[in-house]
Sequence to fold (175 residues):
Amino acid sequence: MKILALSGSARRNSTNTALLRAVGRAAPEGMDIRIYENIGRLPVYSPDIEAEPLPDAVRDYIDRVARSDGVIVSSPEYVRSLPGGLKNAIDWLVSRDTLVGKPIALMHASHRGDDMLDALRMVLATVSDRFAPDIFLRFSLMKMTPEEIARLIARSENAEQVNAFLRAFAAFCRS
Ligand SMILES: Cc1cc2nc3c(=O)[nH]c(=O)nc-3n(C[C@H](O)[C@H](O)[C@H](O)COP(=O)(O)O)c2cc1C
Fold:
């Protein structure tokens, strides 16, 4: 099972990206979680660009989403909503059926950011009829380094939560 992980943060030491990486390393047998690294290289969506041959970065991104069996998103809150780069990445998919029927679950790397989570849940429920709002994993990781996050997620009590989340999402993707 191929899972694509989208981080809403383009920050080098992003806690959301580090969480996705740590969870990816904990994936059970048969589940392959790959981070999409190029969200910051996608051009701003415009229907005009879509009418032309698609830029390589966009084509590659759409292919990766299309080939995945499910998508996990983890994002910071920017100005009480989802970051523009993540919204742009989602916008690139809405005029085609790539996300319709795509299983999607959320993770979040902060105790703050509930306005963003509300907005992102509304967007994802609009673009996919298989967004699973109840399959959700949250840790309070603000200001932590990727190394600290890796260590924290590996602790047995947290690894159990990660495992339960991934197993629930895998079952949802298969259903
Ligand atoms: C431009 C910008 C806007 C932000 N706006 C908010 C906000 O509205 N509410 C909030 O709780 N945090 C806000 N933050 C803080 C981030 O959500 C927080 O630092 C997050 O954990 C960063 O995630 P990352 O480590 O994955 O980059 C903002 C940060 C930036 C850089």
In short: Strands lie at 2-7, 32-36, 70-74, 104-108, 131-138. The helical segments are 15-25, 47-51, 56-67, 84-91, 114-127, 146-154, 156-174.
